[in-house]
Design brief:
The protein has about 260 residues and is mainly alpha-helical. The protein is about 75% helix and about 0% strand. The protein is built from 12 helices and no strands. Helix 1 runs antiparallel to helix 2 (about 25-40) and helix 6 runs parallel beside helix 8. It is globular, with a radius of gyration of 27 Å.
Length: about 260
C-alpha cells in the first residue's frame, strides 16, 4: 500500500512568505519557520533544540566574518571614501554612468566565474564605491542631480552587481548550484560532469552581459534626456503632433498680425 506523504512541513514556506511580506526581521522569520516546520514534521522538542544548537555552533564565527568588513567599510566611509570616489571619477571626462557600470559588470562576471565572489557585493562595493562613482560621473556632466535620478543610478548599480554575480558564478565549476544540479541528475540516472554544466553556463552569461550592457547604454540616453529637461514621455508621437500644431498656430497668428 502506498504510504501517505506528510505535506504539513510545507507550512514553513507560507511562514517565510508572510514574514517577508510583512517585513518582519529576517532572522526571526527564519527561526520561526524552522520551528514551525519541525513541529509539522512531528520532531520532538529535544531534537528541535539540538538541531538549532548544532547549527549555532557550526556558524558561530559567521557574524564575526560579516561584521569585521562592515566595520572597516564604515570607517572608510567616515573618512570620505564616497567623496574621494566621486571626485576621482569626475576627473575622467569620457566616463559616463553607463560606461562605468558596463566595465564593472564585465569585471564582476569574470571574477565570479573564477570563484572570487567576495570581491563585490552591496555593502562592500556598491554602496561605498560603485554608486557614488556612478553619481559622480553623472554630476560631472550634468551638475547637481535630482533625487529621482540619484535613486535610479543607485538601483542600476545594485542591479549590475546582482547580474554580474548571478550569471558569472554559474560558470564556476565548484559553485554550489552546479554541484547540486549534477547530484540531482545523477540520482535520476543522468550522468553528467560539473564541467559540462559550467560550460553551458557561458552562453547564458554572455547573453546576460549583452542584455544588461544594452540597458546601461539606454541609461545614458535616459540621463541625457532627463537632465536636458526632456523626459522620454515628452517625445511621444502625441506630444510631437501637439507641438507642431502649436507652432503652426503661432506662425499663422504672426502672419495675420503682420498683414
Amino acid at each position: 500500500m502506498p504510504t501517505a506523504i506528510n505535506l504539513w512541513p510545507l507550512l514553513g514556506v507560507a511562514v517565510i512568505i508572510v514574514g517577508f511580506i510583512l517585513r518582519f526581521n529576517p532572522m526571526l522569520v527564519v527561526i520561526v519557520t524552522a520551528i514551525v516546520t519541525a513541529f509539522a514534521a512531528n520532531f520532538p522538542v529535544d531534537k528541535i533544540l539540538a538541531t538549532i544548537g548544532t547549527g549555532f555552533i557550526k556558524t558561530r564565527n559567521l557574524p564575526l566574518i560579516i561584521l569585521l568588513p562592515l566595520a572597516v567599510i564604515g570607517l572608510l566611509e567616515r573618512h570620505g571614501l564616497r567623496q574621494h570616489a566621486q571626485r576621482w571619477i569626475s576627473g575622467i571626462k569620457s566616463a559616463t554612468s553607463g560606461r562605468l557600470l558596463i566595465v564593472y559588470l564585465a569585471a564582476r562576471q569574470l571574477t565570479a566565474a573564477v570563484g572570487l565572489t567576495s570581491l563585490g557585493g552591496h555593502p562592500q562595493m556598491v554602496r561605498p564605491l560603485l554608486a557614488p562613482m556612478a553619481e559622480g560621473a553623472a554630476e560631472a556632466r550634468f551638475g547637481a542631480l535630482p533625487d529621482r535620478v540619484r535613486h535610479k543610478l543607485r538601483a542600476f548599480s545594485a542591479a549590475t552587481d546582482n547580474v554580474g554575480l548571478f550569471f558569472g558564478e554559474d560558470i564556476f565549476v565548484a559553485f554550489g548550484a552546479i554541484v547540486l544540479m549534477t547530484t540531482i541528475l545523477r540520482e535520476l540516472g543522468i550522468e553528467i560532469e560539473p564541467i559540462h554544466v559550467a560550460l553551458w553556463g557561458i552562453p547564458t552569461a554572455v547573453c546576460a552581459f549583452v542584455i544588461h550592457a544594452w540597458r546601461l547604454r539606454r541609461l545614458d540616453k535616459w540621463l541625457n534626456k532627463e537632465m536636458s529637461g526632456q523626459t522620454p514621455s515628452d517625445v511621444g508621437p502625441d506630444n510631437v503632433t501637439a507641438s507642431l500644431a502649436d507652432t503652426a498656430t503661432a506662425t499663422a497668428t504672426a502672419a495675420v498680425k503682420g498683414a
